[in-house]
SDR family NAD(P)-dependent oxidoreductase
Amino acid sequence: MIRLDERVAIITGSGRGLGAAYARLLAERGARVVIHDAGVNKEGTGFDPNVAVDIANQICVSGGVAIASRLLLDSRDNCRSLVEMTLEKFDRLDILIHNAGWVAYQTVQDLKPDFLERAININIEAPTWLSQAAFPRMKQQHYGRIVLTTSDRAIYQQYALGGLAAYAMGKMAQIGLMNVLAVEGKEHGILVNAISPVAKTRMWNVQDEPEDLRPEQVAPGVLYLASGECRESGFILRASNGQFTAVRWSERDNVNYPFNLAAVESSTAEDLATRWQEIAADVAF
């Protein structure tokens, strides 16, 4: 059985839905968990301090160890404060799971600066500043696990939805962040992966316990990525309805980047047009 005894985990957005499912499972396996959730509403505004406290209390009543944080992750300083509070309380940080997110719709034509800024803040800036704050202690420990969150709505064109440009950009950005952090963390024992989850939560306007696509069906994948049993870095773990598949972009054979892509040679746009079916041969990701 995978155990996380003495490990310390920060899980953002863990007062409800997927994050709460992650927190409960990690705590059951022995992790000391920081429940971070500012308690914002579906529009990304408002503030309910009880959201994080309630889950932390439930975990403690069940015999686990959890504390609550209600910081808004809207600045580098606040992200650093969350990590510093964790280190002051537990004197280590082993696991960082950035689950916090925000789903809302505006078409590109209607997109407003404040709407885009809110998406950038939670999906790009927050995981970057949290990782920056966590890296020094993880390097010192020569151990760390970071799990970011992406989305099939961003990765696969066939699942894209109109109005989700800001959301999709942020979720794709976390893949780029994952790849770079995986390189920077490799020699220090820090592994970085991403989860691409599907679950019925309040973002789907689901209030009662769903019969399928339950958050608890995704949580085992996050537990694995957050554990010492995980030995790989730079993977996207797709998780839905109790099923998992790990994927990552990989280069074709015989490529000598960037001089030889082992691809179709062409010197004119007209030639590309003629040979497009050959150039754009479907390759499953």
Q: What stands out?
A: The beta strands are 8-12, 32-36, 65-69, 95-98, 144-149, 190-198, 236-240, 243-247. The mean pLDDT is 93. The first strand starts at residue 8 and ends at 12.
